[in-house]
Amino acid sequence: MEQHRWARAYLWALIHGSGKKTPRRMAREDALPPAALRGLHQFINASSWDWRPVRRRLAERVAAQASPYAWTVAELIIPKSGGHSVGVHRRVDPVTGHSVNCQRALGLFLAGAGHAFPVDWSLVLSGAWDWDPQRRRRARIPEEEKERPVGVHVLGHVTDAVTLPHVAGLPWVLDLTRCEDAAGVLAGLARERLDVVCEVDPGQVVLVGQHTPTVCTVGALMGARHARQPHVIVRQAPDGRTKVVPVHLYPGTVRLPQLTVGADGASRTYRILERSAPDGRLPARYWITSLTDRPVDEVLSLVRGRSAALMTVSVLQNRLGVLDFEGRSFPGWHHHMTMASAAYVHQYLDGAPGGAPAEPSGATC
């Protein structure tokens, strides 16, 4: 019961509190009792509640209420000044080229009802966080949590998602352009017989032809003569004007070389879509999709789920405190991310009421 009371208080403070979303700062809110600092801290950092069933119930709630149409994954980079927060490491930002000290996380989202709702998280561990027993023990990292490529984290989310009723078979909309194992992610999704709309690098390898297939990259294939079939998508711009989006598609289908004859999903075929920048200054963008029988407009409309996820990440950063966790433990980080996800779902799916939380007592969890 005490956990439920402090969970309600923490949720209220994430949504309605001002400033950084840390127990110390949130405890200053007038709606919370004097014992709030100790209670909030204990609830997040010292309590032993399991975040996994909470997230599953969160996903089931979104599935039931938001009419979701796709799964997607988005990266969250959490800058850190020190080196003690669980998972913190230095990495080169692929966009800026600068080295940053940060935690790196992947969020799983269900896109629907005009939003992308966060329903699960994974923390990318590397370096000493994988092999240093003292550091792992201090951070309370479970034995099964090891260093894994980002693509393996994505497929881990897939494994969990396919067990959820009603949304297990939704298509996956992913940006794999900076994923080191994009081919492995596509192959894993194919083995699960899941549909995809994935943006890929022009160097993504595919097989062209049926009887004697040849190996080709997506970029080279779409650059070949007569390989680009023009298509026009008409969209309504936010200002009400009609926007014409030119798209090219490969008239045939391709397969994935990772799925050899006899393997699950080996017969699956894909369509390639290309969108060039209108002014020609930016490189073309490419998508590979298993939805070969769907209209192009319908396929590319699913990409809005990816855009929605990026908007959700921005809200989580700027309003709901996903960057503000100051604890150092693995469970504490997951507790905080679970509550931030619940706050987003509560605020945007239920229209969170502005009332004060039920007053918790001073007992610890």
Give keywords.
alpha+beta, 365 residues, 3-stranded antiparallel beta sheet, 10-stranded mixed beta sheet, disordered C terminus
Explain what the structure shows:
InterPro entries: IS701-like (IPR039365), IS701-like_DDE_dom (IPR038721). This is Transposase. It comes from Streptomyces rameus. The protein is an alpha+beta fold and 365 residues long. The chain has helices at residues 2-16, 23-26, 36-46, 51-65, 128-131, 133-138, 150-161, 182-191, 218-223, 296-301, 304-318, 330-349, and strands at residues 70-79, 89-92, 99-112, 115-123, 172-175, 196-200, 205-208, 214-217, 229-236, 242-249, 254-255, 271-275, 285-289. The protein has a domain at 172-301. It contains twelve helices and 13 strands. The strands form two sheets. Strands 1, 2, 3, 4, 5, 6, 9, 10, 12 and 13 form a ten-stranded mixed beta sheet that branches. A three-stranded antiparallel beta sheet has the order 8-7-11. A hairpin with a 5-residue loop joins strand 9 and strand 10 (242-249). Helix 1 crosses helix 3 (36-46), helix 1 packs across helix 12 (330-349) and helix 4 runs parallel beside helix 12 (330-349). Mean pLDDT is 89; it is low at 353-365.
